[in-house]
Specification:
Length: 249
Amino acid sequence: MCHETDSRPPAFGESGRITEQGALVLTAGDGTRFSALHAFTAATGDPAGVIILPDARGTHPYYDALARRFAANGFNAVVVDYYGRTAGPGARDADFPWREHFPHLDPADVTQDVRAAHDFLRAHGDGPVVVVGFCYGGGQSWMLAAGDLELAGCVGFYGLPAFAAGVVDEIHVPLLLLLAGEDVATGPAEFDAFTARLDAAGKDYEKHVYAGAPHSFFDAAYDEWQDACRDAWSRTLDFIQRRTSAVGA
């Protein structure tokens, strides 16, 4: 598991106003109804949208709080749950048996669900959309950079590069890789091999490794990693702002 069941993302004084937030149900192209969370900013115009791909727990309360963090920084955010096909819509709290459902995940199904989330954001504004993923979701985010969704950027926190390794040549969306130096889920050699392939293919990406940080370091409970959390959050917001501002420029 990526985080403890009571984990929450760190907060750094976000002060923007949120107009709406909460749980909803979206429908994928194959008719699957799945859970989602959303939080919308009060910022005027067409704010950029953020699709959040969680770790293996799905729409855990950690990601509800994270969506609100993004909304307080001026973005519309939606969190995608992975388990509509095997568990139906519903809460993904500490009692949800995600380990029973996780082995049945198909990246192609996740892509369908992301497309529904993308449509949901676009139905509420024309701003560019980025994907931000964590662990399993981080790898899925990088993989989506090779797909046909209209995206301005794909961010992964301590993601699993295996998902994107086979589609490196097709990647056409800028990537941000935020990596834990002491990641037990994916070792440095695997990340080095992935970035070497990105370099050889001439892909547009940014990478930062937090030396000594553990997998899932982006957590309010890790007092010793709050500087790394603050830096990772700053890099994420800066990346989103730069990449979404560049769309249509």
